[in-house]
Amino acid sequence: MATHLAPRPFRVAIIGSGPAGVYAADILTKSQEVSGGDVHVSIDLFESQPAPYGLIRYGVAPDHPRIKGIMNALHKVLDRGDIRFFGNVTYGRDVTLSELRSFYDAIIFATGATKDAVLDIPGIELDGSYGGADFVSWYDGHPDVSREWPLTAKEIAVIGNGNVALDVARVLSKHADDLLTTEIPDNVYAGLLASPVTDVHVFGRRGPAQVKFTPLELRELSHSRDVDIVLYEEDFDFDEASDAAIKSNNQIKIMVNTLTNWLVEQDERDSKTPASRRLHLHFLHTPVEIVGTEGKVSGIRFERNELDGTGNVRGTGEFIDYPVQAVYRAVGYFGSELPEVGFDARRGIIPNDGGRVVDANGTQVPGLYATGWIKRGPVGLIGHTKGDALETIGCLLEDRSGLPVPERPGESEIVNLLESRGVEYTTWEGWSRLDAHEKDLGASFIPASGLDIVRERVKVVDRDEMVKISRT
Which amino acid positions bind NADP(+), per UniProt (predicted)? Predict the structure, then answer.
């Protein structure tokens, strides 16, 4: 009697366990060709950090209201058991591209964008000038950044008009005790508690109708206790393009109405007892220089702008100086180059055609794919990565029959390699242990006298401790 062997699984490695990587894995497992056909897919998800979730764990403010919902959705995907998780594994160091090629039919890069985009103005190198992405990594307890952050400034400038700029400004201006209900690490709480900040200024280059943040993030600003929002009437300029945008885009209409209402209510609020901290929103300001004294930030200079009728701006030749002791640039994220993979240094992405990685000549590199911000750049909301993943997986499945066959496709090969090199990789079961440990830390938290605080978790920051807990 003839013996029929089951077909070999189609093996895929995904580099990065943030939303882009998890969405790609989920869409691949649920695709009609896989779920309704005869294709058996085996997916391994690799993450350089000991814990999963990427941007959701290390790139979103801890008090963001949607963070729990997104993390729960990612958890459900990874908790099904049909996707293997390998944490604390760095691509290019612990495992190379050629090795992955020998184990997998296809490799998807979903490494995101974690660096600050460049802001090339004089004084950017001064002591007290910081990248917003670096600050986000600190307050989110990223294991690869310092535990300390120099929070010594009373007056701070935040450059940018996107959601990250608002997150940075909100965390800087918020009272530390009001963040205790979140998962912030103990060192972050201690640093924010000692901050002497009184004024945080957020500067945008264009007008109120051209901001890049969203209504939810804007409204969150008004929820901070003992923080007044300060607006300036001269910044409220609307041209023909602004009026058209307000009429045609409900989101823009909501934000402009919110800002305008705050401006109108400001006079009434000013008659009441002022808050101990203020968050200023400025529009129509282009940064031209960070001013320094003895190597330290002492101010920032802007040129006033005016709208040109198209929604864009032009300089007026009027310059304004603001006394600040720290400047945070939050003008966007930028991708990082990966070993053995092409990189577009201008856009900060892996060159690709619809998710298919291409070489310098634009020719497809068989078996290599990209999704998320490393594919299209750091634009759009987290949910937009689903569309990216759908396109990339569609290309992968189209190419499947023509992809190179791996030399060693067995599922144990990658485990044997990592263990032979002494790589202390973490697993999904290990993350469950770390997750439970962090929740236990929150449950056992003893608040200071007079504080009625319930903490869901306290995030573990130290990498070695994370690995130890995960692998115990």
Answer: 161-164, 205-206, 217, 380
Q: Percent of the chain having pLDDT more than 70?
A: 97
Question: 411: annotated binding-site residue?
Answer: no
Which range of residues forms the domain containing residue 342?
10-114+336-425
User: Is 55 within any annotated ligand binding site?
Assistant: yes
pLDDT for res 456 = 83
Q: Are residues 169 and 108 in the same domain?
A: no
- What is the 8-class DSSP label of residue 375? H
Q: Is 450 exposed, middle or buried (0-12, 13-18, 19+ CB in 10 A)?
A: exposed
Tell whether residue 161 is among the known ligand binding residues. Answer: yes
Q: Are 14 and 44 in contact (CB under 8 A)?
A: yes
> Is 341 flagged in the annotation as binding?
no
102 lies in the same domain as 47: yes
Q: What average pLDDT does range 120-148 have in this prediction?
A: 96
pLDDT for the residue 1: 46
Identify the domain boundary among 410, 425, 440: 425
Confidence of residue 5 (pLDDT cuts 50, 70, 90): low
- Known binder of ligand: residue 206? yes
Would you say 22 is a known binding-site residue? no
Tell me whether residue 20 is annotated as binding. Answer: yes
